[in-house]
Design goal:
The complex is a heterodimer of chains A (330) and B (274). Helices cover 37% and strands 21% of the residues of chain A. Chain A has a seven-stranded mixed β-sheet, with helices on both faces. In chain A, strands 1-10-12-11-14-15 form a six-stranded mixed β-sheet, sandwiched between helices. The radius of gyration of chain A is 19 Å and the shape is globular. Chain A starts with a strand and ends with a helix. Chain B is α/β, with parallel strands linked by helices. Chain B has one domain: Rossmann fold, CATH 3.40.50. Chain B is 39% helix and 12% strand. Chain B has eleven helices and seven strands. Chain B has a five-stranded parallel β-sheet with strand order 1-2-3-7-6, with helices on both faces. A two-stranded antiparallel ribbon of chain B has the order 4-5. The longest helix of chain B has 16 residues. Chain B is globular, with a radius of gyration of 18 Å. The two termini of chain B are 20 Å apart. The chains are: A alpha/beta (330), B alpha/beta (274). Chains A and B meet through helix 4 and helix 5 of A and helix 6 and helix 7 of B.
Chain lengths: 330, 274
Amino acid sequence: MAPIPSFPLHPGVFDPARRELAPTRDGFGYGVVEAGEENPKVVVLCADLAESTRAAWFQERFPDRYIEVGVAEQNLAAVASGMAAEGLVPFIASYAAFSPGRNWEQIRTTIALNNQPVKVCGMHAGVSVGPDGATHQALEDIATMRVIPNMTVIAPADADEARKAVVAAARYSKPVYLRFAREKTPVVTLPETPFEIGTAYVAWDAATPEVVLASTGNMLFFALDAAQELERQGIAARVLHIPTVKPLDAKTILEAARGARGVVSIEEHQVAGGLGSALAELFAQKHPVSMRFIGVQDRFGQSGRPEELFREYQLTPPDIVRAAQSLLAH
Amino acid sequence: MKALEARVLTIEMLVAAGSGHTAGPLGMADIFTALYFHILRHDPQQPLWGDRDRLILSNGHIVPIRYAVMALAGYFSRDEALTLRQFGSRLQGHPERTLLPALETTSGPLGEGLSQAAGMALAARMQGKKHRIYCITSDGEHDAGNIWEAAMFAGKYRLSNLTAIMDRNNIQINGMTEDVMPLEPLREKYEAFNWHVLEIDGHNMEEIVEAMEHAKAIYEKPTMIIAHTIPGKGIPEIEFDYRWHGKPPSPEEAKRFLRTLRTFYGAVEASHLS
């Protein structure tokens, strides 16, 4: 097992003393300011959650390009569509449970079918939202966005990749859904680590991997952790990081899976309709392979500390290790 | 006369399509005619001219009348108008911008066109553009919360470059609007949301044009023109009848309706009726 020169990892991945923690929503805040500096047509619309979505950072820098719509997510999406029609590049920010949770049809019709390049930014995705509980923990957003034609779906691994994803989305002429988390998670990538929309990356490799751990979003850190534990047990694993869940980078993913005995999909999302489903659709057609699905198993979230919830919903590195072992025992 | 032609073409289109809505489109013939022939700054030869006024149809199901008036204005041929709702046509059952960019938006699911129009109005103002945004809405779609979100938003941002026209025809699919979900007092509601409100007879061309000109002179507020219209206007036997909201005429009914329109309700002899 070895790191990959083409995908440099933050030293904190291996050394807790050097670990940096930051929420991916911070990456939205930094990225959207950067995008705003690059393109004066970038505007941010927010539904009364400026501080917690980090839209406030853009508001401070560009007060005239910040639009407050109040607690009105349907209006948030459709107003943004109208602004895009007039040539602007709107980012809409709220919690994923509400946007795209409440305004799915407005996103489908006025943004995706209408093909306007609005960037839908869903914060507080996953059970790691913590104490707020099930109502505020979006676990279905990848699924509901992935099924809409014209929509690109991105779940960045850490705060810095989130920043890069936001900057890339601003340059991208199509509708995009970006998924962010509330809780601080380890920074996994470095500024020079590549990110492109539509590309999957091998983040960790072995000469002859027996199992592929394919993760999206901030589960990459757990996947890397699980790969190291598997190595200690004598099981060679390859870690595949898939920030763009749609469109899938089929070429990289199929190549990564070739020769392996199985694939474990890993996501902080319902197993129904998310990354695992997308991979299963691909593998079933192009390269049938055994799979295990790490994700939320058809349940709602609940209040608790993130680490308690990761354990309760079986999203931790030991859960990933067990899934890989069961694949190989098969 | 243009409005009459538009009604005739609409009925021909609906018969050819075999499905679609009848009452709403007929009731809005005069307003669409006023917009395309008197109010909008537009160029059918350059549908995406940057300084054009934008017309957003929020209640997308009445789009046949828009297509009919657009055909008369020269956006496309009458023959193309007759492809309404057919496979491969740019004239989808509900408006789709990606196929026909002159429609400005994709709409149909009710309640969201006014938001799109408000977004356009704000974005146009932010960029110093001088064109105006017009939005047609229905009364029935005022059941939707999204409409009131948009109304609050337009009032907050004082979108004086936005003129909305409400098709107040009092019917919706399940019956009379005041039975399905009472909407009144609409004028007072919009005034309370910081809009300038005008009420007109939606079939009186002078009143329609005057109200839209008046709206241009209102500063600091968006304008809502509540246009009282008669669903099915032009065909006495279906006027005011909510059962005609969502169905097209049969070929026999259409023949009768067209005779009614072409003879000015029997006042003149028809010379070339098929």
